Amino acid sequence: MKAILVAMATVLVSLSMGAQQNISFREGKLVSPQVNNDRTVTFRVNAPKAKSVKVLADWEQNGGQGVMKKDKDGIWEYTTPQLLSEMYTYRFDVDGVVSIDPVNPFTRRDVGNVFSIFYVGGGVADEYQVKDVDHGQVRTVWYHSNTANADRRMNVYLPAGYGKTDNKYPVFYLLHGSGGDENAWLELGNISRIMDNLIAEGKCEPMIVVMPNGNFGKQAAAGETSENLSYKPVMTNFLAHYKDGLFELAFPEIVNYVDATFNTIPDKAHRAIAGLSMGGMHTLMITANYPDMFNYIGLYSSGVDFTLIEKGEVPAYANFDGKLAKLAQTNPKLYWIACGSADGLMQANRQLMERMTKNGLKYTFHESSRGHLWSNWRQYSLMFIPQLFK
Amino acid sequence: MKAILVAMATVLVSLSMGAQQNISFREGKLVSPQVNNDRTVTFRVNAPKAKSVKVLADWEQNGGQGVMKKDKDGIWEYTTPQLLSEMYTYRFDVDGVVSIDPVNPFTRRDVGNVFSIFYVGGGVADEYQVKDVDHGQVRTVWYHSNTANADRRMNVYLPAGYGKTDNKYPVFYLLHGSGGDENAWLELGNISRIMDNLIAEGKCEPMIVVMPNGNFGKQAAAGETSENLSYKPVMTNFLAHYKDGLFELAFPEIVNYVDATFNTIPDKAHRAIAGLSMGGMHTLMITANYPDMFNYIGLYSSGVDFTLIEKGEVPAYANFDGKLAKLAQTNPKLYWIACGSADGLMQANRQLMERMTKNGLKYTFHESSRGHLWSNWRQYSLMFIPQLFK
Fold first, then answer.
1. What is the ipTM for the molecules in this complex?
2. CB under 8 Å to B173, separation ≥6 — which residues?
3. Measured between alpha carbons, how far apart are the two ends of chain A, in Å?
């Protein structure tokens, strides 16, 4: 009985933390979404002439779908089941036209689509939002790559207080997936807020976070190159330096630029690297080719491509076992692998761990629920970053 | 005849500069918008069940409206008249639901709404896009305001090469309107591309551009404060430091932070300031209250509020004539006023110019076409910035 009361109290406390958020930029306008105190979320859209309206989203329940119902004034409404704390993306399907929520001004682009967003608080998503803590700064800078023969863009998070003293900081390199870019970890990963909050709460060391662009055939994110709005992502074109290993082999250019430009501690003990999906493959191959560079390695839902590895035609991916064995000898302090149970890449990740064991390379594995989703990559960050530079 | 041939050749050259842009992130998807070589633009949306589809945009012809027509496959299409070179924003109205173009991944938030965007090249908009030139960097930083008792956010553009030498730079302070924020000049004004391009073409001096947040009751842009997505803009709440003059009076806090943080030339001869709409009122009042601070002053479609000025209750706005007369004595090198002929604020701007003349303050006036629009503010920047620090 006592245990039940404690459990209930815990539920009540965490429910009260998920305070209601009404998204409506202008007073008097329709509110949508409305994040209710019980962690359900109500969506509304004014579409009197529509025949059918659905919400299409990335929560787990009912496959993220909700059928909206119309009232007498033509306002369609739908309330979700209780949702776990997270940042969610969604769109409305109005008679087959799929687009953002017309009254929610907050959106994110993910690959080629734009989504409306909201947060359900009272848990992990509290770390994704802005709190009244000291804020770090973000710099959008261009470094020169001799290998690519181009200036290329990266985003750099510097912790609060950076530059006010001569303090030098460890560096965490954080890589995006295919379809992403140097903005992805800021916009979809909410990484500057996560860093501000974890540092303010004493949960991680103050550190620099470097987010380069991993599409080596591109200089920067979609719309930020001289292709401008005619930009096509590299993953639609296997000739455009997609999986040719050049990004991985040229990675010391990025590390050298960062060490020359920022107040870093420029040694292996103070360098970490992680990446999601394609960025996980990049992380695997960068650390395999440069075994003395990073002490902390994270693969998030890694897009390990054993077909390319076994072919061995790409220099960066050749002699895979030998490289893993050599990395094992340098004894990195943490090799952390995470994947969702519903992720199609789980099998390749299990195969990778077998290869690591065979080559004497130790790792820690975290299996989460869900699939190939940003919710996993944000939550992996909350787990991985506190382990760095301790 | 020869004159006609020259004129025709000029038209052909500038048409060929407006090269076709097909916006379609993934191959094989519907293309929309398609910017045609003749500077017309074709929009498409797949909506077989819709009864009526319109384009709602900010070009001048037909009030920016276009009625789309459906083909046998349910694809609606509309082609605009020939458009002038600019960046345009638009949405689709599908049976009364107004939202972004579902297949165009490029959007901008303006006040509380999200719009799809595109560019028509071959003119001013070429300066708004990314070219193969050296790029400056952008820093998103927080300064402390003692007056607001808060950390507040600003964006700072630093020209290419900044920090590689001990070079010191002049500073241009650039202010947004009500409903805008510290991101507005970057996202809607395209100012980092304008600066990169003007500097690369030798059309302006290399300079630092500082974009603070002018909503003094807010710490940062919508979604970037601890209100998170429940953010309401200050202009919906006259108690939230909207037009109370505190932003203007506290402006030396920003200048002091910038001079202490960046490689600036910290004197009047190397400082410029301009603002649009509410930011024009801010610029007017900052320079009136601090007559020794800026040598170059720009008011873009300035929201001059003579009701508040005549009331004289707000300290920053009191003794207006005396302050203008004092500013006249300091003899600023350039006082540049611009307004669109269709702008409702034209009358207040004319009244302002009369007051300036009465108080001996010289100015240059530029009357453009159009109204209270970003197209004007971007084009004013192309005119104002080359005049600075010469």
1. 0.93
2. B209, B210, B211, B212, B254, B255, B271, B272, B273, B274, B294
3. 40
**Nearest Cβ partner for A229 among B98, B118, B160:** B118
Using the Cβ of B161 and the Cβ atoms of chain A, whether some distance falls under 8 Å is answered with: no
Interface of A with B in 244-263 (CB under 8 A): 261
Nearby residues of A128 by Cβ (< 8 Å), 6 or more positions away: A87, A119, A190, A193, A194, A378
- Reading the block at residue B225, the tokens are 């404060």
Which secondary structure element, helix H or strand E, spans residue A89, and what is its range?
strand A86-94
Reading chain B (390 residues) residue by residue, the pLDDT tens digits are: 444 444 444 444 343 444 577 776 766 689 999 999 999 999 999 999 999 999 999 999 999 999 999 999 999 999 999 999 999 999 999 999 999 999 999 999 998 999 999 999 999 999 999 999 999 999 999 999 999 999 999 999 999 999 999 999 999 999 999 989 999 999 999 999 999 999 999 999 999 999 999 999 999 999 999 999 988 888 766 667 888 999 999 999 999 999 999 999 999 999 999 999 999 999 999 999 999 999 999 999 999 999 999 998 999 999 999 999 999 999 999 999 999 999 999 999 999 999 999 999 999 999 999 999 999 999 999 999 999 999
Strands B21-22 and B34-35: antiparallel
Cβ atoms of residues A132 and B130 within 8 Å: no
The sign of the dihedral angle between the CA atoms of B309, B311, B317, B318 is positive
Q: pTM (2 decimals)? A: 0.94
**b/e per residue A59-96 (b: at least 16 CB within 10 A):** bbeeeeebebebeeeebbbbbbeebbbbbbbbbbbbbb
DSSP structural state of residue A7 = H
Contact (Cβ atoms closer than 8 angstroms) between residue A272 and residue A388:
yes
- In this complex, the residue of B47, B96, B132 whose CB is nearest that of residue A48 is B96
- Residues with Cβ within 8 Å of A35's Cβ and at least 6 positions away in sequence, in order, are A18, A20, A21, A22, A23, A41, A118, A119, A120, A121
How far apart CA B287 and CA B296 sit, in angstroms, is 10
Specify the 3-state DSSP secondary structure of A258.
helix
- What does the angle CA B210 – CA B213 – CA B218 come to, to the nearest 5 degrees? 160
Query: Distance (Å) from the C-alpha of residue B135 to the closest C-alpha of chain A?
Result: 7
Cα–Cα distance, B390 to B386 (Å, whole number): 8
Contacts of A80 (CB under 8 A, 6+ apart): A40, A41, A42, A43, A55, A59, A61, A66
